[in-house]
Amino acid sequence: MFRKGSSTAPPGYFRWEAAGLAWLADAPGGALVAEVVGAGPDHLDLRRLSFVNPDPAMAEAFGVGLAHTHDAGAPAFGAPPEGWHGDGFLGPVSELLPLHLRPVASWGEFYAGQRLLPALAMGVDRGVYHRSDIALFEAIARRVAAGEFDDGSPPARLHGDLWSGNVLWTAAGGVLIDPAAHGGHRETDLAMLALFGCPHWDFVIGGYLTAHRLDAQWPHRVALHQLHPLMVHAVLFGGDYPHRAVELAKRYR
Fold first, then answer.
1. Residue 30 near residue 72, CB atoms below 8 Å
2. pLDDT tens digit string along 133-186?
3. Which CATH number among 3.30.390.10, 3.90.1200.10, 3.40.50.150, 3.40.190.10 corresponds to the domain 48-88+104-252?
4. Whole-structure pTM over 0.90, yes or no?
5. Disulfide engineering: 48 pairs with which of 2, 25, 125, 241, CB 3.0-4.6 Å?
């Protein structure tokens, strides 16, 4: 058994993570998910995993499973995982940020109002952006909210924080851990995997596309989906992340 614990985690944090893991695990044919053994106010107990180095076949199978996880769907964009009510959490346990979860009908309304603008507000509070940067982000958020980038896809069942460190490779395949699960756009998970690097990425996306064909314009939206995680990293870690977020945003001026 592996225990993830913190005496300073906000109330409900480990129940939130457990609910997300259970929701993801419930997807028929979906990616493997860390098994919850138990949860308490200050800890989450998981079945211990043994790590291996992934190979292309494992990566391809993970891509197929991830597509099926997304296909399991969600009630709405911004919907929380089953068994959880209200907002969730995002980031390291030592510095968790609020994750807004308010179900809405369109991805644009969700992504602008519950991801881009809250991340921008936190960045402004911490002084990481210039005034011209703020205007750029606000202009993009208006276009997103208006539906300019919506493609008609239904809400997908997302991991929600899918950088490569949240995929643990075992002999059975890639296993999802540490989710910020919610209803969103499937391209968000894929864009985050690509942003921070993923072993055998070409095989992951190849497997994904055999299980679910993406809209032909999806490559042009990848950077837009990557904008929120970069803005979150700008808030949490500073460094070069504010500049990277601004440069990414300039692609959509």
1. yes
2. 999 999 999 999 999 999 999 999 999 999 999 999 999 999 999 999 999 999
3. 3.90.1200.10
4. yes
5. 2
